[in-house]
Design goal:
alpha/beta; globular; eight-stranded mixed sheet; 30% helix; Spore Coat Polysaccharide Biosynthesis Protein SpsA, Chain A
Length: 193
Amino acid sequence: MDAIVMAGGFGQRLGMGEKPCVELLGKPLITYVIDNLRASKNIDRVSEIMIQERYKGEVQVIRTFGGNYVGDMIHAVETSNTAGPVMIIMSDLPLVNPDLIDSVIEKYREEGKPALSVYVPINVCRGTGTRPDTVFNKDGKLIVPAGVNILDSSQIRKEQEDFNLILDNPRLAINVNTVKDLQRRKDLLQCSN
């Protein structure tokens, strides 16, 4: 399976430049995601919308128009010449590790639907100190999109039936939107090393 890292966003709440380039323990945020995708046993190729020098041809860089997330995602999928399912992941998820990536892909294959969207319960976000921008009600349970999806690239311009994978995994709730978030992630990464 191929993966596309969505690396747009100016990081206005962070106030430190483009969010994917903001450093966390000496590495840009996006490199955590790319390195974890590359270490996954189920990811064959990684495309993203920014870094080139660090990966010297190992990661395909795709420039988009920056108009909106969905338009950029469609452009990235079509430009990457991906065939079959593709993982779309946000660049500000530094703790989403290879095992978690592989388990999401395995669940996708098991469910057999064209798409899969990953969510975390809102209480998991609260437990990590993350304040979500978007919350959905799924069968009376409040859930938050995790920024990890799998789509059928051949149907990228169509709405796809998807499986809602709800995981109680704090690694999926730990993204970076503010300076406070960045400090919390730094503390978590230092503790886990």
